[in-house]
Design goal:
The chain has 191 residues and is mostly helical. The protein contains ten helices and no strands. Keywords: DNA-binding, Transcription, Transcription regulation.
């Protein structure tokens, strides 16, 4: 095998992996129990290719979750650039995070094992760093008072992945976000 052939195969394998993860993300959002054959079909690969990359359903679920979180944590600057208001960027970013977490909850046991907990723990620092960028922008804009801990804000915003995934839940989420921003306009209380 020539070096060029090997490089071409690696690029194709990397493209297949991304296609599988993106198909899994879409299909798991619709139905957490979707057959893996459907994921392979949507990705445009054979079952053997899917299983070469992800030997078990749990491996695929973890791969899709990791990909989603990595993608989200790197988008804080992009979301801020897209909005004229840091507050609007903050809200969009957290709504996207909540959609990912709703999918995660629908995947049940696959995200409760040791490997999943390690992955979730590893995603905490980049998630907190992304939230810090959003909070800093909101502080500069005047929609959040200085001094709030990004980790506290993540915990506070966790209501978003508990509201119903329908119009009533979206309306409830908007009301609660407004209440959160009202509270964040005051400096944090010291312990």
């Amino acid at each position: 095998m020539t070096e060029g052939t090997y490089g071409t195969q690696r690029k194709a394998a990397a493209r297949n992996r991304v296609a599988i993860i993106e198909a899994a993300h879409e299909l798991f959002a619709q139905n957490p129990q979707v057959p893996l054959s459907e994921v392979a079909k949507r990705a445009g690969v054979g079952a053997g290719t899917l299983y070469r990359h992800f030997p078990t359903r749990e491996d695929l679920i973890l791969g899709a979750y990791q990909h989603d979180i990595e993608r989200l944590t790197t988008t804080a600057d992009e979301v801020l650039a897209r909005h004229s208001s840091a507050k609007a960027a903050f809200i969009e970013w957290f709504e996207t995070l909540s959609a990912y977490i709703r999918i995660k909850h629908g995947l049940g046991d696959a995200l409760h094992g040791a490997a999943a907990q390690e992955l979730i723990s590893a995603s905490w620092a980049p998630t907190t760093a992304a939230v810090k960028k959003l909070v800093d922008a909101c502080v500069a804009e005047g929609t959040i008072a200085p001094g709030h801990d990004p980790a506290d804000i993540i915990m506070l915003m966790s209501f978003l992945w508990r509201v119903a995934n329908n119009e009533d839940g979206a309306a409830q989420g908007r009301r609660l976000i407004a209440a959160v921003f009202e509270g964040l306009q005051s400096p944090p209380r010291s312990s």
